[in-house]
Design goal:
The strands form two sheets. A three-stranded mixed beta sheet has the order 1-3-2. The protein has a two-stranded antiparallel ribbon with strand order 4-5. The protein folds into two domains: 35 residues; 119 residues, no CATH class. It contains six helices and five strands. With 155 residues, it is mainly α.
């Protein structure tokens, strides 16, 4: 019986620590967002204008298609940031990866570099994931621009 109580106690501490960790993660995201700089806010406004301009065609599942010049929302964010350049992913695919010189950012056709999403726009990981989900599940660029505006008003 004593060992069952110990296991129950350890399990309770584990759950509590997990809850505390989640709370701390949310708190850190919350505090980080409120430190969004005026430059990051201006970068967000530029992205909103581009999303509403009608100049860009939307794609899902990849940042950028080199042959059709289509973008997902975060691919367009990369394009507008001017922090790097597009490199064709492979000769068999039309998709590109965004490469930022002299950084350790992981590069992949579906992964947005940290310097773009966090440093340039001030997007939390949670919000970046939300934008990608909205994009990939059929929301228009106009609707995504509305979400970015809501994000900016809260932060």
């Amino acid at each position: 019986m004593y060992s069952d109580e110990i296991y129950l106690c350890l399990y309770w501490y584990f759950l509590m620590l997990k809850t505390i960790r989640e709370f701390i993660d949310v708190l850190v995201d919350y505090l980080y967002v409120f430190r969004q700089t005026p430059e990051q806010k201006e970068n967000c406004l530029e992205l909103i204008r581009a999303l509403r301009s009608g100049k860009y065609e939307k794609i899902s599942g990849h940042l950028h298609n080199t042959d059709t010049n289509q973008f997902c929302v975060m691919g367009l964010a990369c394009e507008l940031s001017n922090l790097g350049s597009w490199r064709k992913f492979s000769h068999r695919h039309d998709y590109s990866e965004y490469v930022i010189p002299n950084t350790d950012d992981q590069v992949h056709v579906c992964i947005v570099p940290h310097k773009v999403s966090y440093d340039h726009y001030g997007f939390t990981d949670e919000f970046r994931s939300r934008l990608v989900t909205l994009n990939d599940f059929g929301r228009s660029f106009e609707e995504i621009a509305d979400e970015i505006e809501k994000y900016m008003r809260k932060h």
